[in-house]
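Human: You know discrete backbone vocabularies at least as well as I do. Show me how you would write down a chain together with its backbone fold. No explanation is needed for now; the record alone will do.

Assistant:
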Amino acid sequence: WGVRGRLGVQGCDLTLNYVQEAEGALIPKQRIGLTAKGDVGNLGVYGALGHYFDKGVESSTSLLLGADYSYNLDYNTKLTIQLEYLGLELSSLAPQQREGLLKMKGSDKRLGLLIGRADYPIDDFSGISLMVLVNLYDGSMLISPSYRNTLAGDIDLTLGASVFRGRENSLLSPGGSMPRAVLTVGLSYAF
């Protein structure tokens, strides 16, 4: 169950949440969160802070900070840029979970990710984008360009690639079950 309160303050949207998870959840059973979003000039800004806690388990905190900006290149073309920071304190995960899932050393309890994305519409039916994700603690990264096109019959074609870079045993490094690169092709139809 959960409780949520929301209010607007001078053009900002603020939300406060409390959640009590069911028995047997993998994460701590209680969490409280605060979100805020608004505009600073032409820049959209947003953030979220979460705190996870429970009896007999170390508490942990997560933080998301982001900004987005759209720039009109001409009447029909808008470049969109987004930048986010995600900080996670993973004290509530067992060292084996941190090592197995996130390639973190047993003593490491923090993860910091910086994510950037740019979208550019080529025309009314197609566009390109680039997303880059960097682990601030180990320097590994993911680079992911993509191309979208609306085909006849409102079928959307997406072509993408993801390239993984980093030192051996870093979060986003190739090796083991992580490939060096992935190519994707997708078709979708909205009805």
